[in-house]
């Protein structure tokens, strides 16, 4: 016991937390220390007991402590009678004032001290019983009676301390009679000296108890009886194992800083966190603080302030150990006296480096995601630009031989879905007109690249090779099927596409067309719209030698032909009939009466972008007024 | 997605098949076909509610891989909408649905 040390450590702590506190109560510390020394309990237990007792009596703890000190200092310790006298003197107010006196037993002058012992035991951790010897007529001790017991007493058969009181040892624990513990009690009664027996095995007669347990028994003479403490080693071991395992699993350590004694205790786990051998002993507070990464010192300082306000602290900071950085989370709380001054500081320290690293990786992943989103936006800009270059969209209808055409490209509302829809409308050189729309599966750069390839391929083939829609699609299919980049990037899907290609022959008012997996064109005539009967023809890029038969439809002035990609009618959560119905309604309405600008009206009225998919529409009407086929 | 292999590689797809999951499905079918060289590949679409053009691309590629490995290829159980889509795309016969 060193009250000066306690005072200086408190002062030190006060200085740390930057908060002035009244000087420490030395008396309480002294009394705790003396009581602990005399009662053979731990200092913390004695301290807690005094504080609790004072609180129960609604008195300042130091006052009670002063009384105890006075009693203790009057006489030097010299045996059982002193202890009982001291306890009676010091604790009499407790008996008078404490409201619920425990175990009201038949009162006699000889039993008052037993009640006092019971009160002390009530405040103690651990398993302690007070035994009173029973004497035979000849003055021999033949048994012991349980006179008081601490709350933690719970024997192997499940009996609590209260259930033991008043019973004899031989009826409760017959196995003890005449054994080594029994002999030790006898000896202590004779010579007045405390003893420790064990660890020794105890065989329990109770069936549901462990067959054999290891016990250490400590015996002190108290008054006319014996104070007996049981330490069960199996439990101790289990508890220690459990704590050790918890520490290992949670990367946890536990430390205790006793401000009264100055003692610093570290658990094995805490040594692991600080990568120190237990034989080296714990680091001082100054040494642990020196390990903190300077950038994190303010964090630690704020925590100390909170601690000064009496708050529990939970803080994470970095320490540097052997050139590596560790993230440690520390939860600090204190046992405080009745006036709020810390007596003991406890810290649970957790190595959260792994968690912090995951968190940092997550942050990095988020950063990459943002970068990728930016690159998606960049890709979208490129694709949009590419679309504009490859596929210039005339805002006004264009006039081709015998045909007026309006086109509209509606990019997907969601930027990431912009992709590979295209159209083509051009004279073939022999008086005919080639019309086409197509749709490359997928979105983004790849789809846009395939779109460019198909559209330019079609334009080149139409000029150099053929204007037959079936033969053109056959060629585009070969082009796409043989596409080399698939082999280069094996996890990419081969590109597929759909398209419809039509050749309008103005002189014959007919449309020759073929399709490759694409919806058939719609033909609106005088308020009635039909989907053209579709020839066979699989999508492009699926089969090496697909055939695309053509079919012929008459197309007369006044008719409106609509080629479209499925973005116009396909919505994820509705059927294609549901999607097609409004388009048919617009076509019917526009062609019901002759109108000056039907194709422009049509593309304007169908100008609703699909959220998920590009849409390309091409509307065409034969020129020459609503005259019969073959007219001037 | 679920795969079972003995003589037949049985691929069961569920939910919506679109550009968000097509690459992964394609990869797994490709690995299974390469590893097991099944006599036949069967893709069950009865639990699929939606398929976009990229999803159809997965089926087309499964068919191409099966053909290259001389395995029979079949798609079973498409709902009416998917069946219409496959008809428009000219795939019913090749998928054993005609």
From TrEMBL, chain B:
By its UniProt entry, which Pfam families does this protein fall under?
Answer: STAS
Q: Which Gene3D superfamilies match?
A: STAS domain (3.30.750.24)
Q: Which InterPro entries match?
A: Anti-sigma_ant, STAS_dom, STAS_dom_sf
Please report the stretch or stretches of sequence annotated as the STAS domain.
1-98
Protein family membership: Belongs to the anti-sigma-factor antagonist family.
**NCBIfam families documented for this protein:** ant_ant_sig
UniProt protein name: Anti-sigma factor antagonist
């Amino acid at each position: 016991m060193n009250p000066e040390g306690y005072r200086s450590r408190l002062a030190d702590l006060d200085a740390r937390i930057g908060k002035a506190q009244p000087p420490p109560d030395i008396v309480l510390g002294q009394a705790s220390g003396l009581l602990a020394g005399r009662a053979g309990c731990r200092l913390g237990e004695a301290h807690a007991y005094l504080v609790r007792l004072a609180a129960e009596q609604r008195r300042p703890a130091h006052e009670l402590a002063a009384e105890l000190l006075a009693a203790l200092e009057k006489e030097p310790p010299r045996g059982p009678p002193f202890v009982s006298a001291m306890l009676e003197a010091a604790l009499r107010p407790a008996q008078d004032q404490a409201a619920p006196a425990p175990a009201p037993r038949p009162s006699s002058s000889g039993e008052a001290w037993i009640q006092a012992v019971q009160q002390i035991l009530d405040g103690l951790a651990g398993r302690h019983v007070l035994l009173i010897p029973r004497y035979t007529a000849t003055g021999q001790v033949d048994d012991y009676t349980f006179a008081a017991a601490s709350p933690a007493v719970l024997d192997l058969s499940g009996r609590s301390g209260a259930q033991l009181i008043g019973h004899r040892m031989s009826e409760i624990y017959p196995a003890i009679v005449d054994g080594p513990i029994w002999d030790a009690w006898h000896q202590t009664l004779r010579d007045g000296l405390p003893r420790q027996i064990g660890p020794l095995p105890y065989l329990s007669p109770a069936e549901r108890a462990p067959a054999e347990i290891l016990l250490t028994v400590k015996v002190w003479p108290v008054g006319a009886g014996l104070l007996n403490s049981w330490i069960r080693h199996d439990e101790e071991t289990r508890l220690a194992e459990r704590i050790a395992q918890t520490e290992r699993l949670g990367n946890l350590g536990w430390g205790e800083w006793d401000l009264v004694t100055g003692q610093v205790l570290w658990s094995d786990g805490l040594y692991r966190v600080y990568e120190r051998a237990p034989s080296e002993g714990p680091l001082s507070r100054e040494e642990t603080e020196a390990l903190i990464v300077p950038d994190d010192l303010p964090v630690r300082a704020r925590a100390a302030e909170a601690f000064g306000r009496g708050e529990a602290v939970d803080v994470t900071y970095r320490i540097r150990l052997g050139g590596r950085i560790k993230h440690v989370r520390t939860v600090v709380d204190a046992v405080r006296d009745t006036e709020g001054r810390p007596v003991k500081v406890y810290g649970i320290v957790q190595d959260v480096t792994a968690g912090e690293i995951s968190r940092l990786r997550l942050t990095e992943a988020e950063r990459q995601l943002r970068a990728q989103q930016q690159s998606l936006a960049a890709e979208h800009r490129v694709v949009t630009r590419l679309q504009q270059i490859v596929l210039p969209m005339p805002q006004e209808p264009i006039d081709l031989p015998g045909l007026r055409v309006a086109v509209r490209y509606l990019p997907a509302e969601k930027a990431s879905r912009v992709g590979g829809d295209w159209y083509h409308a051009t004279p073939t050189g022999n008086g005919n007109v080639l019309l086409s729309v197509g749709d490359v599966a997928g979105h983004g750069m790849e789809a846009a690249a395939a779109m460019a390839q198909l559209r330019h391929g079609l334009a080149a083939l139409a000029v150099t090779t053929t204007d037959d829609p079936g033969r053109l699609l056959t060629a585009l299919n070969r082009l796409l099927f043989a596409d080399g980049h698939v082999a280069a990037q094996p996890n990419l899907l081969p590109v597929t596409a759909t398209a419809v290609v039509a050749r309008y022959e103005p002189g014959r008012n007919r449309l020759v067309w073929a399709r490759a997996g694409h919806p058939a064109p719609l033909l609106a005539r005088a308020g009635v719209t039909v989907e053209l009967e579709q020839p066979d023809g699989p999508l492009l890029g699926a089969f090496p030698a697909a055939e695309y038969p053509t079919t012929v439809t008459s197309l007369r002035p006044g008719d409106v032909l609509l080629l479209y990609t499925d973005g116009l009618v396909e919505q994820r959560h509705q059927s294609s009939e549901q999607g097609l119905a409004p388009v048919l309604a617009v076509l019917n309405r526009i062609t019901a009466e002759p109108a000056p600008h039907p194709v422009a009206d049509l593309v304007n009225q169908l100008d609703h972008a699909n959220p998920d998919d590009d849409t390309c529409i091409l509307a065409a009407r034969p020129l020459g007024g609503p005259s019969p086929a073959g007219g001037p | 997605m679920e795969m079972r292999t003995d003589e037949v590689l049985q691929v069961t797809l569920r939910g919506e098949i679109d550009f968000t999951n097509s690459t992964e499905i394609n990869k797994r079918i490709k690995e299974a076909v390469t590893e097991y060289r099944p006599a036949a590949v069967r893709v069950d679409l009865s639990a699929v509610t939606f398929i976009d053009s990229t999803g159809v691309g997965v089926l087309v590629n499964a068919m191409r891989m099966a053909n290259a490995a001389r395995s029979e290829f079949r798609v079973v159980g498409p709902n009416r909408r998917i069946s219409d889509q496959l008809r428009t795309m000219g795939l019913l016969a090749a998928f054993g649905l005609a």
